[in-house]
Amino acid sequence: MHKLVSTASLGLAAVLTLTGCGAKVVPDDKKTGPRAVTVTNCGEKVTYDKRPERVVTNDVGITELMFALGLEDHMAGYVMPADKGSVDGLPYGDAYDKVKWLSKDRVTKETALSAHADLVFAGWNYGFNENALTPDELHEAGIDTYLLTESCRNARTGTSRGIMPPLDALYTDLENLGRIFGVEERAQKLITQYKATVADVHAKAPEGADRPSVFLYDSGQDQPFTSGRYAAPEQIISEAGGVNLLHDLKDSWTTVGWETVVKRNPDVIVINDYGSTSAEQKKDFLLSYPPLRNVSAIKHERIYTLDYADLVESPRNPSAIERLGAYLRQVADGS
Known about the structure:
Layout: H1 12-15, E1 37-41, E2 44-48, E3 55-58, H2 60-68, E4 75-79, H3 93-98, E5 101-103, H4 109-114, E6 119-124, E7 127-128, H5 135-140, E8 144-147, H6 166-180, H7 184-204, E9 213-217, E10 225-227, H8 232-240, E11 243-244, E12 253-255, H9 258-264, E13 268-273, H10 279-288, H11 296-299, E14 303-307, H12 308-311, H13 317-332
């Protein structure tokens, strides 16, 4: 996604279910030394001749995937917009303090070269863009890349992104990174933990007609920017007990028309909190926008806020499902 990141959601620290955040991890294969590893990334076999030691990441979710695996010692730095806010109280706060903040813009070839990067971990519209920086440009400079699976381009639909369900993308990246960096045991532990959290929420979720329809509002007034079936909100919403209003849209993050939102009449709107426009300002706009006045979520003011880092592929996804699930159960119960 090409959007920016804000401060952490209110109450995140109290409900976050991650363990070992930012813990230093000794590679599982330390005694065997460096070895080539081949993984499938965005449908292609990619071989890494040795364990990367100077990784540059782009954006918050990607950066925190490295932190969740305890790989901050393998990082040269991260690129993240200025409006990410303070990291005080965030998960992985110690890791953020330890790793250098290289730039407040998107990753560039110059940034990677200046940091002496041996790998850039980014994604299409999460740093990589045909008009700015492509993986091929870095490869020509001798720098490896790894693409965020949520951002993989779908060959059947052209430039749209998404090749698998969003949580599967998270687990795939954890597995691949675990192999690349020799921390397979840590990766599997996280995957098992995340799946257990999601399964617990899913077991409590409303069923059938009781599942609220949910519209993800990212930004935009003339046309809303939202999530189709291949971005993280799709499964965050469905596992929490709702139905993504744009489930049939075969893309990740994209723009639709307000007439679609009005016609489909969501029960709940989830606001993506980030950037220069606050969640409260977005809420005020939605409540005052005339075409939405008869939409159920607006009439009943069923508007819930999640942070940007909750809604892109990241280690925060299971916690987001947990929090949104509790809210949707209240909606389904009529409270």
